[in-house]
Design goal:
The protein is of the alpha/beta class and about 500 residues long. The protein is built from 17 helices and 17 strands.
């Protein structure tokens, strides 16, 4: 099968969050299975050029119709960790992707509308006819719209689209200028509730809604998050649209790269270990304490948090977890960066308060090497998110034998099964701890149960660790799921 991924990110060359990891991981999995995969991306001035091998010109003068004229583009080609990527570079005074940032500009809607148009134009002009276009998030929501309304009449009538939503919160809203710029025109046609009109803003066109309506299949990044988006406020206004298209909507759990996250061959940790040689993990715990100047006290477990410090990740619970853990005689390690100045200032204050504690270290920022060591050295990883479409932290924790303590939302529900209360898995298949409410008491009860097992039943804790390490959250299973979706839509 010939698959083209169209996205605004691909790790490690362009990465602002989990989207980049998914685009690369899924592409690699499909290539391993013998399929032809290409990735189309914007050429940002701030992307990691050192992660591209053999960058060269692939198409010199791609003229992309835009507004009342056309914008000339250069398309470059190179390999990112073995995956073939095309980078679209508009040569325009608008400098669409020469902003020093990936997102956050006032004209983001037009920037990515142009990218979507240019990606289709590139496929058309180079006579590339993939079986499936796999588009991601609001930035590429217009690809299936333009494919169905325009490009199918120019020789692309056989291409099918799978559209994956990673975050419902950001949907992409524009007005009539979008229709004029892209050549879709016909405002009265697209400003219909069953097409692009935003469900709550009659004067807005919604990119993500367009992706849902026009795609052949729609996915989000975990089964439980699909339910949340369909039936709760987590869909951010798109619940009814998902209901109207529920026959082609489901959740497919993301995977993690088991070559990158592998305690048996991780170059970032001092001591490699496996489920059969689990005792070696304790050496990484000592190394972590040395690195962070924590006391070497074998009577204390380490609870860790790794991730963004923002409202989505439940920062109020992260803050409470620090002091509750310390109060229970355990150690706490945090690695994270804040996205808002107020949250950043709050955690810098906490860092100064706790700076002399031999049982706590707050590392504000992000450090890839240190994240691996924390996963390998900690006993527990806490994920108290307000919402979590999929979540990678808990999967990585399980891979490293670090027991997750999570809130029961999104993909966390699909990957962590509470040792004490899960009704759907026998004890020998449970792998962590879960709480559902977003208050301090729920968090405390989960941490208490986890620390109680560590202190009171070391063999039971070891069994829980081993059970978690045996789960397969690689790209193998989601790869098979997506392959089945591709096969389904290409024969429609």
């Amino acid at each position: 099968m010939y698959i083209v991924q169209i996205a605004s990110e691909c790790a490690p060359v362009i990465k602002a969050g989990g989207l980049g990891d998914v685009v690369y991981g899924l592409s690699r999995e499909m290539a391993i299975r013998g399929h032809t995969v290409e990735i189309i991306l914007p050429k940002y001035d701030c992307m990691r050029y050192d992660q591209i091998w053999g960058l060269h010109e692939a198409y010199r003068d791609l003229m992309v119709p835009w507004c009342d004229g056309a914008i000339r583009c250069q398309v470059l080609c190179g390999w990112v960790l073995g995956q073939l990527c095309f980078f679209i570079e508009p040569q325009s005074q608008d400098q669409f992707f020469n902003r020093g940032v990936y997102y956050g500009c006032s004209d983001d809607n037009l920037r990515f509308a142009f990218f979507s148009k240019a990606a289709l134009e590139f496929l058309l002009k180079t006579n590339k006819r993939p079986d499936v276009l796999h588009c991601h998030d609001w930035q590429t929501g217009l690809v299936p719209v333009m494919l169905y309304e325009m490009y199918q009449y120019s020789g692309m009538e056989n291409q099918r689209v799978c559209y994956t939503i990673h975050n419902f919160k950001h949907q992409g809203i524009a007005g009539t200028e979008l229709l004029w710029a892209t050549g879709l025109n016909r405002a009265e046609y697209y400003f219909e509730y069953d097409r692009l009109q935003d469900n709550f803003n009659p004067f807005g066109l919604n990119f993500m809604k367009g992706g849902i309506v026009y795609s052949n299949y729609v996915t989000t990044v975990s089964p439980h998050h699909a339910w949340e988006a369909h039936h709760t406020e987590i869909g951010y206004g798109l619940g009814h649209t998902l209901h109207m298209h529920q026959h082609k909507f489901r959740g497919v759990l993301n995977g993690i790269d088991y070559d990158v996250w592998n305690p048996e061959a991780d170059g970032y940790i001092p001591y490699s270990y496996t489920v059969e040689k689990l005792d070696i993990k304790a050496k990484n715990k000592r190394a972590l304490r040395d690195r962070l100047l924590l006391s070497q006290d074998d009577e204390k477990p380490i609870v860790a948090f790794i991730g963004r410090l923002d409202e989505q990740k439940g920062v109020h619970l992260v803050h409470h977890a620090i002091y509750f853990t310390l109060g229970r005689g355990a150690q706490f390690v945090l690695l994270g960066s804040a996205t808002e100045s107020g949250i950043n200032a709050h955690f810098w204050h906490e860092k100064n308060v706790l700076n002399d504690s031999p049982d706590c270290h707050l590392e504000l920022g992000f450090n890839e090497e240190l994240s691996h060591l924390i996963y390998a050295g900690a006993d527990f990883i806490i994920v108290p998110s307000n919402y979590e479409p999929c979540g990678l932290t808990q999967m990585i924790g399980l891979r490293y034998g670090t027991v997750p303590i999570v809130r029961g939302v999104g993909g966390l529900v699909n990957t962590v099964f509470d040792r004490d209360y899960d009704e759907f898995h026998p004890l020998e298949e449970r792998n962590g701890y879960m709480f559902y409410q977003s208050d301090n008491y729920a968090l405390e009860f989960a941490i208490d149960r986890a620390l109680g097992l560590w202190h009171g039943d070391p063999e039971g804790f070891k069994d829980l660790v081993i059970q978690g390490m045996k789960y397969d959250y690689s790209w193998n299973n989601p790869g098979q799921d997506y392959l089945a979706i591709y096969e389904l839509i290409r024969h429609k």
